[in-house]
Automatic annotation (TrEMBL):
SMART domains: HTH_ARSR. GO terms for molecular function: DNA binding; DNA-binding transcription factor activity. Signal peptide: none annotated. It comes from the Bacteria. NCBIfam families: HTH_metalloreg, repress_SdpR. The lineage of its organism: Bacteria, Pseudomonadati, Bacteroidota, Flavobacteriia, Flavobacteriales. Pfam families: HTH_5. Keywords: DNA-binding, Transcription, Transcription regulation. This is Transcriptional regulator. InterPro entries: ArsR-like_HTH, HTH_ArsR_DNA-bd_dom, HTH_MetalResp_TranReg, SdpR-like_repress, WH-like_DNA-bd_sf, WH_DNA-bd_sf. Residues 1-84 form the HTH arsR-type domain.
């Protein structure tokens, strides 16, 4: 759970999640939306993957990233258990 909150604690990573809500994207498409280096985007994607917030799937020569909605459902369920 700590890696999940660490991943969500960064504005760039939250923006990446917002982009992936709209559609699946490869790293180059994600990087085009930001004014930071591609290695920095790769670093953010790695943190999001380690937190299981996104999934990367190899399609041809690219890795296409999508949201792991299961982890968001788990997080929401956990948050709802706090309301007792």
């Amino acid at each position: 759970m700590n890696s999940l909150f660490k991943a969500l604690n960064d504005e760039t990573r939250r923006q990446i999640i917002d982009l992936l809500k709209e559609r699946d994207m490869n790293a180059g498409e994600i990087a085009d939306e930001f004014n930071i280096s591609k290695p920095s985007i790769s670093h953010h994607l790695d943190i999001l993957k380690r937190a299981d917030l996104i999934i990367g799937e190899k399609k041809g020569q690219f890795i296409v990233y999508s949201l792991n909605t299961t982890i968001f459902e788990d997080l929401l369920n956990w948050i709802l258990t706090l309301k007792k």
